[in-house]
């Protein structure tokens, strides 16, 4: 089955700097890759996603890149702010009807003021 | 437009009791997924349901756990004879379509077994 790895497990950056989180997946049939942000005591919130027919997607300060050949995808956050502090999860799905998500173990991002 | 709703938000049960977790999907969503999250870990898939059907329960333990999504009312995850290892956060997600569509998560139910 699918296996998703995520690095780093913790990341601290100064406010205004960029943060990059990387994930790798094992199943070449996976074709949908969402990213979730989870704040303490809350449910995961979808922040951006990418499908396998696209190499890069951007939404304001957040961008995701996908390398299908290498089977890895990355989340990029620019101009980080203290409110970006949270746990971020990547996930992979085969995208067929009803396929569940396989999540990475998470990255705890701390943005220091 | 209300998001995914889960209740209760916190549930305390003694070993051997039953736990019932409820999930109401977003309006217009007919697909429900249940995930379990242990402390400091990622989410693990448990079960995927459509109205009145269990589509995939490959992530759910064979014993003591069951799930349903009736024609009317919320989806329910039921854990019988709870043990301390069942203590976790249980999240429900819903989607409008099954095929590679976005899943939106509820706030979760934090189950503590004493």
Describe the structure.
The complex is a heterodimer of chains A (113) and B (114). By secondary structure, chain A is an all-beta fold. Chain A has strands at residues 4-7, 10-14, 19-25, 32-38, 45-51, 56-59, 62-67, 72-77, 86-92, 102-103, 107-112. In chain A, strands 2, 4, 5, 9, 10 and 11 form a 6-stranded mixed beta sheet that branches. In chain A, strands 1-3-8-7-6 form a 5-stranded antiparallel beta sheet, with no helix packed on it. Chain A is globular and about 40 Å long. In chain B, the strands form 2 sheets. In chain B, strands 2, 4, 5, 6, 9, 10 and 11 form a 7-stranded mixed beta sheet that branches. Chain B has a 4-stranded antiparallel beta sheet with strand order 1-3-8-7, with no helix packed on it. Chain B is mainly beta and 114 residues long. Chain A binds chain B through residues 6, 31-32, 34, 36, 42-46, 49, 51, 89, 93-106, and chain B through 4, 6, 31, 33, 35, 41-45, 48, 50, 55-56, 59, 91, 98-100, 102-108.
Strand content of chain B: over 45%
Name the average pLDDT of chain B. 92
Structural class of chain B: mainly beta
The outline of chain B comes out as: globular
The fraction of residues in strands of chain A falls at over 45%
> How many extended strands of chain B?
11
Terminus-to-terminus distance of chain A: 41 Å
Assign a percent range to the helix content of chain B: under 10%
Which quaternary structure do these chains form? heterodimer
Radius of gyration of chain A over all CA atoms, rounded: 14 Å
Q: Outline the low-pLDDT stretches of chain A.
A: none
Q: From the helix content, strand content and strand pairing of chain A, which structural class follows?
A: mainly beta
Number of helical elements of chain A? 0
Most extensive chain-chain interface:
A-B, 27 and 26 residues
Largest sheet of chain A: 6 strands, mixed
Number of strands of chain A: 11
Biggest β-sheet of chain B: count, sense, barrel?
7 strands, mixed
């Amino acid at each position: 089955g699918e296996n998703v790895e995520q690095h780093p497990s913790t990341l601290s950056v100064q406010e205004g700097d960029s943060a990059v989180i990387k994930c790798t997946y094992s199943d070449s049939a996976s074709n949908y890759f969402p990213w979730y942000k989870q704040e303490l005591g809350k449910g995961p919130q979808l922040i951006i996603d990418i499908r396998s027919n696209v190499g890069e997607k951007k939404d304001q300060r957040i961008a995701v890149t996908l390398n299908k050949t290498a089977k890895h995808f990355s989340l990029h956050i620019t101009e980080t702010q203290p409110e970006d502090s949270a746990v971020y999860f990547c996930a992979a799905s085969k995208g067929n009807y009803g396929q569940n998500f396989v999540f990475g173990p998470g990255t705890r991002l701390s943005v220091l003021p | 437009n209300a998001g995914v709703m889960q209740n209760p938000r916190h549930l305390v049960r003694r070993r051997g009791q039953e736990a019932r977790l409820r999930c109401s999907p977003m309006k217009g969503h007919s697909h429900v997924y249940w995930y379990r999250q242990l402390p400091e870990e990622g989410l693990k898939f448990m079960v995927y349901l459509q109205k009145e059907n269990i589509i995939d329960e490959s992530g759910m333990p064979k014993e003591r756990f069951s799930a349903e999504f009736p024609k009317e009312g919320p989806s329910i995850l039921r854990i019988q004879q709870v043990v301390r290892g069942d203590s976790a956060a249980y999240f429900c997600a819903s989607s409008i379509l099954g095929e590679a569509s976005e899943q939106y998560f509820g706030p979760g139910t934090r189950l503590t077994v004493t």
